[in-house]
Amino acid sequence: MSDHDLAAKLATQAGELLLDVRVELADASGAERKAAGDKRSHEYLMEALAAARPEDAVLSEEGADDPIRLRSRRVWIVDPLDGTREFSELDRDDWAVHVALWEDGELIAGAVALPAQGVTLATPAVSPPPAAPSAPRIVVSRTRPPAVALQVRDALGGVLVEMGSAGAKVAAVIQGRADVYVHAGGQYEWDSAAPVAVARAAGLHTSRIDGSPLQYNRPDPLLPDVVVCRPELAEAVLAATQ
User: With pLDDT > 90 as the criterion, what percentage of the chain qualifies?
Assistant: First the structure.
């Protein structure tokens, strides 16, 4: 099985497991659902990767950071449950599972599963988004729109679209339901690795907010800012963030 196919399979199957957790714990508290979802999806992904790619290292949000990854040529970067708050709310579908593969300095495969939407977006073949409307749609968190997104909205004459997890936001840009995702305020490599891999495969612009490349598998996995947008908007978006 190719790395692309494996990423898609594992993200999809972890998502199916999470849907089962939601059903099983439908009457539990949101905190219980969050904890169970994080734990079970992480355990599934770690076991599945150990079986399918035993020589590769793994960086997971829910696991201890093993420094062996810094000496490894191939590192899987996973977020077992992106958007725990949205996952815990049974009527929401804007949460995701991220599975990406970094090899020799580059993201080479990735998948973003949106389990409650029945969708998995995965490399290598990702359809580009359809034509954008005249007013760019900037996707933001439903609770805390970052100031940089408001700057981009004002500079581009755009509108805000509220959504949950980072993976769901980038997926919305890939699917043509939004045009810009810009974030500055604290994220880690697992928040963006898989979404960025898939966005690149769809021909979208990806970078830091200063226009520099996004780099992964670094000693400190903090990667606090990211831009994913339609390529024709990239220059204006980056200018608005400065």
Answer: 89
DSSP class of residue 222 equals B
Tell whether residue 81 is among the known ligand binding residues: yes
- Which amino acid type is present at position 38? D
CB 145 within 8 A of CB 152: no
Does the CA dihedral 82-85-88-90 come out positive or negative?
Answer: negative
Torsions phi, psi of 191, nearest 5?
Answer: -70, -30
pLDDT computed for residue 134 by the predictor = 84
- How confident is residue 142, by pLDDT bands cut at 50, 70 and 90? confident
pLDDT for the residue 125? 87
Helices (H) and strands (E) in the chain, counts: 7, 10
DSSP codes of every residue in 69-89: GGG-SEEEEEEEEE-HHHHHS
Q: Is 191 annotated as a binding residue?
A: yes
For residue 31, how many C-alpha atoms fall within 13 Å in the half-sphere facing its CB? 0
Which CATH number applies to 137-241: 3.60.150.10, 3.40.50.300, 3.90.420.10, 3.40.190.80? 3.40.190.80
Instruction: Please provide the CATH number assigned to the domain covering 3-122.
Output: 3.30.540.10
Taking Cα atoms as reference points, which of 72, 73, 75, 120 lies closest to residue 100? 75
**Residue 61 assigned to a binding site:** yes
Alpha helices (H) in 129-224, listed in sequence order? 147-156, 166-175, 189-201
Split at pLDDT 50, 70, 90, the class of 242 is: confident
Structure tokens at 88: 């815990």
Q: Which amino acid is at 205?
A: H
Using an 8 Å Cβ cutoff, are 201 and 132 in contact?
no
